[in-house]
């Protein structure tokens, strides 16, 4: 019991010291902002090439999600690199999904079949380690999994 009291007193002392340090730095002074309140760095402007790349990737993945095979065909005809793209430089970049992942997740059988015929990797893994088949199964696309 005495040991527990000593630990509680030590914890209280540490909290008090942290509070005193914050007060010294002016963290509670309404006139002077704390160092943590510094303005974030402005984002770097994208070049026209970066904007175009991002738009192409987003259109490619949107077409896969919607099952628009004609749009996929037209895009791939002029940009073969799209087939292996994993959502780089888009809002979905953290996922790392390929167009085949998206077609599978949305149950777009015709788009998925076309992507496979064009050479999309069936075993491609996104950043979470999932394959397009995992995406289909996770979204209840039983027919596609079979």
From TrEMBL:
Signal sequence segment: none
Cited InterPro entries: Ankyrin_rpt, Ankyrin_rpt-contain_sf
GO aspect biological process, one term: protein K6-linked ubiquitination
Keywords: ANK repeat, Repeat
Region (Disordered): 25-49, 125-146
Ranges in a coiled coil: none
SUPFAM superfamilies with a match to the protein in the record: Ankyrin repeat (SSF48403)
Compositional bias ranges of the Low complexity kind: 31-40
Annotated TM spans: none
Keyword Lipid metabolism appears in the UniProt entry: no
Pfam families: Ank_4
GO MF annotation: an example: ubiquitin-protein transferase activity
ANK repeats: 95-127, 128-146
Keyword field contains Repeat: yes
Protein name per UniProt: ANK_REP_REGION domain-containing protein
């Amino acid at each position: 019991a005495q040991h527990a009291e000593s630990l509680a007193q030590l914890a209280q002392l540490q909290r008090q010291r942290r509070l005193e340090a914050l007060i010294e730095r002016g963290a509670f002074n309404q006139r002077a902002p704390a160092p943590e309140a510094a303005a974030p760095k402005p984002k770097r402007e994208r070049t026209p090439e970066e904007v175009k790349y991002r738009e192409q990737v987003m259109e490619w993945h949107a077409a896969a999600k919607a099952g628009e095979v004609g749009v996929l065909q037209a895009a791939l005809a002029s940009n073969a690199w799209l087939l292996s793209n994993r959502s780089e430089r888009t809002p979905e970049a953290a996922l790392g999904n390929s167009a085949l992942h998206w077609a599978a997740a949305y149950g777009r059988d015709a788009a998925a079949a076309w992507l496979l015929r064009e050479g999309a990797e069936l075993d491609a893994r996104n950043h979470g380690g999932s394959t397009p088949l995992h995406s289909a199964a996770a979204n209840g696309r039983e027919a596609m999994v079979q």
